[in-house]
Amino acid sequence: MAEATENNPFSAIRKELDVNGAKYAYYSLPDLNDERIGRLPYSIRVLLESAVRNCDEFQIKKEDIEKILDWEKMSTQSVDIPFKPGRVILQDFTGVPAVVDLAGMRDGIARLGGNPEKINPLVPVDLVIDHSVTADAARSGTALEENSKLEFSRNAERFTFLKWGSKAFENLTIVPPGNGIVHQVNLEYLARSVFNSGGVLYPDSLVGTDSHTTMINGLGICGWGVGGLEAESVMLGQPVVMVLPEVVGYKLTGALDSQMTATDLVLTIVANLRKHGVVGKFVEFYGPGVSEIPLADRATIANMAPEYGATMGFFPSDDKTIEYLKQTGRDESKVAMIEAYLKANALFRTYGEGAAADPVFTSNLELDLSTVVPCVSGPKRPHDRVAVTDMPTDFSTCLTSKVGFKGFGIAEDSLAKKASFSYKGETYEIGHGSVVIAAITSCTNTSNPSVMLGAALLAKNALAKGLSVLPYIKTTLSPGSGVVTRYLAESNLQSAFDELGFNTAGYGCMTCIGNSGELMDPSIDEAIKEQDIVAAAVLSGNRNFEGRVHPLTRANYLASPPLVVAYALAGRCNIDFDKEPIGNDQEGAPVFLKDIWPSRAEIAEIENACVLPSMFKEVYASVANGTEAWNALPAPDGTKMRTYPWDPASTYIHEPPFFNTMNLEPDEVKPIENARCLLSFGGSITTDHISPAGRIARDSPAAKYLAERGVGEKDFNSYGSRRGNDEIMARGTFANVRLVNKLADKTGPYTTHFPSNEQMAIYDAAARYMSEGVQTIVLGGAEYGSGSSRDWAAKGPYLQGIKAVIVISYERIHRSNLVGMGLIPLQFKDGESADTLGLNGQEIYNIAIPSELVPGMDIDVTAANAEGKVTAFKTTLRFDTEPEVAYFRNGGILQYVLRSLAKA
User: Fold this and answer.
1) DSSP state of 137
2) CATH number of the domain at 412-611, out of 3.30.499.10, 3.30.360.10, 3.40.1130.10, 3.90.1150.10?
3) How far does Cα 343 stand from its chain's mean position?
4) Which residues of 11-21 are buried (b: 16+ CB within 10 A; e: fewer)?
5) Helices and strands (DSSP H and E) totals, the chain
6) Which residues contact 208 (CB under 8 A, 6 or more apart)?
7) Which class does domain 657-691+733-903 fall in?
8) Which of 422, 629, 666, 766 has its CA at 20 to 30 Å from residue 659's CA atom?
């Protein structure tokens, strides 16, 4: 909704803005006549504007505006504020279950006697289908066509459902598959920058169900990832209730060296901010160096906010923002309106002479851009930065270090081990560090023409020297939008990618999400397994957690697109590019990376000539029309069929169980008694561990479920693609092959059932506990739930009967998701953990949940072991706001909203 007009105490500052004869209304922050505004970070000013415009003395009160105005003092006191984003953005992995829930809510409200058509998004919702395509085919001119056909054949049920939803729900726009990745489409096309709703202007802002929603921060738009449950509540008119954030000011000075890429810069920033500590905070970039950074580079930095732990990394709107809007083909009159509004409302940043004073920040960092050196991150986490010059030494150390984030535990006498295999009539040999996947992925970098053109020029220069990529390395190119293909064609550089093996495999999030497909040949799989080779993947994405990219690539490195090409040419990740040649030319002479590395000037010249506004206009003009395959897809007519005709035989789309038995009034809150520990973890358990998105293993409970319904192994697809079916997702919860659970004696999705002491699949143990009427909990360490913002990482544990999670600390979105599903997030007191308390997970747990709950209160827990020894300890209840208490009492956020609508 554009504004709260009734009872708004700030109606006096509703002003008129004239832009070239067109008149608009807006809520003027300068007319608050409060000197504190000039000291506020620009990101906080966006929160302030939303609160002022939407103030209704009910959901948003005058006292909330005062908290924001007094940010300098209040941001360190963990106070709550409501925020109403302007829109919601979804990708299909997380978007499908969101739309499934909306459809289920229509059925649920009908059961409670309400009107199903009350269930509609109240703010604009854009869903981009981008996570369903897999790189099955690679290194061929037909790869794109083959993968697209497989995408539709595997996902026809999901796509049919979404096509119905696009007509059944108001305010919901679907971007069909084959158009690109959500973040790049958002940046190039969907972003409004400034909304015009009924003649009222206000800043574009959003929440999204992908943690990398933050990419839009590079365009001066506030937005961040939330759980699917929180996004659904925003769709239904609820504000996001958030802790007023601290803002870390990151000052950039100087300029990048001519050989550096945006990826080198962002990986440096990730490491620095991780060290500084920015979890739950905003980061706002400022300083003279910012004005030197192109918007595409800013978007690359903003994209990686989840990797440095911040809620978002924000670049205020400035002249570069306006330039980008023009470059991407936005309407001139719209751009003029955007610039005029932002300047009139103190939301436009200037640098240099005459610029306003810098805002006040909670803390400050500084980076001289000239000090950035080429780097990668890995082998298991995106914030473990390694300078490229240090890669040989670092990888060697990782091999022999004990198993951990920087170790593989390889014995000294196995370091030289090699594995041979035959492929297409030739025999090849690989060892530790051999690259088997090299992917230029859409996740972070393909929105950035400079790094894409740089990679293509590197490929062209390599070919001119007679270099090639070994045929067994799976090389793929996944453009984030059709614009990439246009400018690669315009510059005559796509052919260089193709000849080197980086053929376009699909327009979507592929390798980085785990949709890398099989390796080039089963013989490679067997060689890796038989000799226990630490094989490597190099990708230009943002995530490299264990088991994510491919089960057989234990070393996974994030790198710039040019470095992805370089490591593919080298065939191994432990090369010293300064001292070792990347290959030999036609005469047998050594070729070093520096010999083929393109200059920034050369890249800039091609970018200026070949990245044209007309390309953006042409590519996105066809989005609304859909592709031929999308338009040919039969689907129920959502304009006539307002509730979805669920097919009980569908293994993709299933009516959610969350609303089937709910009553108009919630059940009484009860303590947790005689519970067992289903899982006991160490630190850094990610949402990939809890709810993997990759392929379904052939021996898993989910595979058994599918096989029983006649689905063959080749059609199992991935967990991500089947998120619309709760039966499969419950079975896929904690199904990561790299999961380390202290209650199992082997790695993978296993645990021990008590008191029988039988080891079994986690899902089977959970089902057994539920059949026995036994509640369960989870124990964990620090940063529990880091990674992608997956609602199934909370829905799955709920369906497995887990009632509470007790850990050292939580990732922001995951904690919110647990609350949204009615689970209880508890936190050990400072200095305490399961280990310090002597808990091994075999105890019986009692958790005293009082009838009167207060955010942040102490909760008493007791754990009795088999000998009768009782350990009593206090935990902190991580319900952080009063609304979260209300969500829990209702069994979850969706039940809360549904009851509210049913009673209205």
Assistant:
1) S
2) 3.30.499.10
3) 31
4) eebbeebebee
5) 30, 34
6) 88, 89, 90, 91, 182, 186, 223, 224, 225, 226, 231
7) alpha beta
8) 766
Per-residue pLDDT band for 5 (boundaries 50, 70, 90) equals low
**CB count in 10 Å sphere of residue 714:** 8
The C-alpha angle with vertex 16 and arms to 10 and 20, in degrees rounded to 5, equals: 155
Tell whether omega for the bond before 671 is within 30 degrees of 0, i.e. cis. no
Cα–Cα dist 296/167, whole Å: 34
Give the DSSP letter of residue 597: P
Token pair listed for 718: 């991935």
Mean pLDDT of 305-319: 95
**Given this chain, do its domains 412-611 and 657-691+733-903 carry the same CATH topology?**
no
In this predicted model, what pLDDT tens digit does every residue of 173-205 receive, in sequence order? 999 999 999 999 999 999 999 999 999 999 999
Nearest Cα neighbor of 698 from 717, 720, 722 is 717
pTM, full prediction? 0.85
Distance between the two ends of the chain, CA-based, in angstroms?
19
For the chain, the structural domain boundaries read 11-83, 412-611, 657-691+733-903
What is the per-residue DSSP string for 286-345?
A: ESTTGGGS-HHHHHHHHHTHHHHT-SEEE--B-HHHHHHHHHTT--HHHHHHHHHHHHHT
Q: What is the strand order of the sheet 535-539 is part of?
A: 385-387, 375-377, 553-558, 535-539, 435-440, 474-477
In sequence order, the β-bridge partners of residue 243 are: 80
Rounded-to-integer distance, Cα 504 and Cα 138, Å: 8
The alpha carbon of 681 is separated from its chain's Cα centroid by a whole number of angstroms, namely 23
Q: How far apart are CA 139 and CA 457, in angstroms?
A: 18
| Residues 6+ away with beta carbon under 8 Å from 54 | 1, 3, 4, 60, 84, 239
SS3 697: coil
CA distance 313 to 214: 7
